[in-house]
Amino acid sequence: MNLDLELLPERCDAIVVGAGPAGSAVAQILARGGRDVVLVDAQAFPRDKVCGDGLIPDAHRALARLGCLDAVMAEARQATTLGCIAPRGGRIDVPGRLAVLPRKRLDEIICRAAVDAGARMFAPARFVAPLRDGGDGSGRVVGARLQDGNRVRDVRAPWLVVASGAQPQATIAAGLCERRTPSAIALRGYVENAAMTPKITSLEVVWHKKLTPGYGWIFPCGHDVFNIGVGLAQVSRSRGGEATRHANLRDVFVAFKSIYEPARELVDGGCWLGDPEHELKGAPLRFSLEGARLEAPGVLVTGEAAGSTYAFTGEGIGKAMETGIHAAEAILGRGVDDTSAAADAAVRADYAARVLALKPRFDVYEQASSANEHPWLVDLLVWSARRSPRRLQRLTGVLEETHIPTDVATLRGVLRRLFDWR
What we know:
This protein is α/β, with parallel strands linked by helices. The chain has helices spanning 21-32, 57-65, 69-75, 103-117, 169-173, 242-246, 249-259, 261-268, 317-332, 341-356, 359-368, 370-373, 376-387, 389-400, 411-419; strands at residues 14-17, 37-40, 54-55, 77-85, 91-100, 120-122, 126-132, 141-148, 151-156, 159-162, 184-192, 203-206, 214-222, 225-233, 271-272, 281-285, 295-296, 299-301. The longest helix is centred in the C-terminal third of the chain and has 16 residues, at 317-332.
């Protein structure tokens, strides 16, 4: 699956940078549409990826669109509820179609599907810079410069799609980065503990004042293995990510163990998987379609590079694939040989409109993320949902994306939804 850089063609129809869920989705849809696609990643596959590994309903739908759902579910640990645990110990279990599969295996399945569709995967290959029309370097993007060690290759293509994840280097190189600091940072590891398998069957997310402004999670992966971690949100964008820059996530993880008995029991009675000295790994997150421009002449930005992860819970796999599918469909909406300025503008406008149509979904989670800074709001949420089956059903609708509240611009709107205020 990992082709050598020496085999790169001089030209193709599209270059996709990043072979995670977003990039592989782009590559597969384009290849199925008859386009000659070069897919590159900085690491050879299979490779690890720091993530909570949770697949919520939007990921199920995207995987089905890509024809990968059956393959993923055959290996994933499926669950029927998302457990939300409040600071005072109250809990609600929100029903939904949920699953967990470590990203090392998930990304391999999705990338393999892109290759099987006809995309050519080159790795390791690092994106260095876009190629541009004109001699002054300010023209339309017409390709990419790629590098592996001392080897550098230029590939020309009508479209460059940046799907490089939360690290900003690629969007900086493409001139599309609007904020280098992440929305949040997370730390996770895998623990094997057979005694906890019958005790933790939901995807559990925990809020507490000692985890502010963030949360902890435990997701069962199957085979007696659990993904456990903590995430810390950026308190104030105006402060440039002060909370995430100065936080010690390992201290937050210790706090998670101290305030949540199942976390302590899981870790203290279990066995860390992976490198014993690096069992916990960290990574940045980008939320709410913020941090980078979506498009420029000849280039589209998709997945977490475009901020496709939800605030509040940090779930982003489904929306990464969804934005990738939108990017591919926008490109396929114009003929492969039509590289006119009008065609370029039409593709970019189509893609931007598709992605921005998702914004109300992100707004729901962005407003709910107030609970990361004020965890007492989760106490109210749990209290409210436990008093009314209709309110719990409403939360299920948000998870399944069958119910998108329209008045989430203010805390008053959220409270109205929770407590049926008029």
